[in-house]
Amino acid sequence: MNNTADHNWKFAQCFGDKGDSDDITEADIISTVEFDQTGNYLATGDKGGRIVLFERNDSKKGCEYKFYTEFQSHEAEFDYLKSLEIEEKINKIKWCKRQNSAHFLLSTNDKTIKLWKIYERSVKHVADKNLDENNPTSIHSLRVPKLAHQETTVAAAPKKVYANAHAYHINSISINSDSETYMSADDLRINLWNLGISDQSFNIVDIKPANMEELTEVITAAEFHPFHCNMFMYSSSKGSIKLSDMRESALCDQHTKVFEESEDPASRSFFSEIISSVSDIRFSHDGRYILSRDYLSLKIWDINMDNKPVQTINIHDQLRSKLCDLYENDCIFDKFECIFSGNDSHVMTGSYNNTFHLYDREGKNDVTLQADRNAFKAKRMGPTKNKMSMGRPTSKNSQMGADPTDFSKKILHASWHPHENTIAVAATNNLFIFTEDMQ
């Protein structure tokens, strides 16, 4: 893999409706993006409960994708006991390691996780009938009819439904390196599942207090270590990341390590706890580092050093003076994801104005790209101190006065190809693919 700083990133493809933004329905908004382990397949989930899969187009040069299949993963439900509507929105998709010609993936909404099998099915038609049309009354004309291949279609079938194990909204699913187990996390609990058993799970983390009035934090994300199947981490709304070892006890209340940075009391404000909430965490592929994202920054932690991050990258520092306005329009609660590149040399996260940032691990290079639905081309803004200086005029929904940042356009979800410098980015109802120009 080449160094990001040595090559220009370019817009490669865009999937989705290119019409007027007023025509976009809530159901069409993409809510998760995920490459599989090979990078040959890409999945997106949306707020309407649909999953769309894309396949690498080998007939084209470079990294290009084509539509593979689409299916309805979740439907809207109603919990009559709690008088609660359960949205069909797909919160997360995780690919299982491929064992045969079929693909398997996990998808989840707020309450129910499903295991899907996606496979190619041969559609056949009768090519040779069992009667001789010239002499249909003759018994000697009877013969066994023959079937011939007509076309190959892609089918999706639910193999397992893992339900009724979460009282709160599921925010994460993570498949273990043993390829046999996975965990699911909601606001207060983390459960461990066997992929082959849908009616039983084990509670491995429970932070629910006896009295809910004493609740001070919630779980925001969770992930297994990339190759130590006994280790996992989870983050909290208080800005901490807890590393746990399942060999120590059945209920992982005692943490092996807690990664958190002490706050300067002088800078504490009403918004401190909100902006310090960790929205996403990722292990590096070598398992040595942890990447975390809070509202204003990215942090990289060494797994052997829990007292402070080895690197802090400020994303929205210029918004620090606008936190009151961001609180009023709810943008301060936006949950941005973060990603390591395939070789761990770079990190990526999203921002407003439909922009996203790529940083090298040394912090010397910041590439800002824009997923522009109108222009359908990348706008490289290059290394700059004021990363938002080329933003579009504020929309009527932003409520931020003359600020050039459009807060209605945001890159929350993205995925980095596991072996190449190719990135898939969700911008409202469009999927953008960016890749390096190798000229």
TrEMBL record:
Keywords, comma-separated and alphabetical: Repeat, WD repeat
Region (Disordered), start-end ranges: 383-403
PROSITE patterns named in the record: PR55_1, PR55_2
Keyword Transferase (UniProt): no
Any Gene Ontology CC annotation: protein phosphatase type 2A complex
Family in the record: Belongs to the phosphatase 2A regulatory subunit B family.
Protein name: Protein phosphatase PP2A regulatory subunit B
Record organism: Hesseltinella vesiculosa
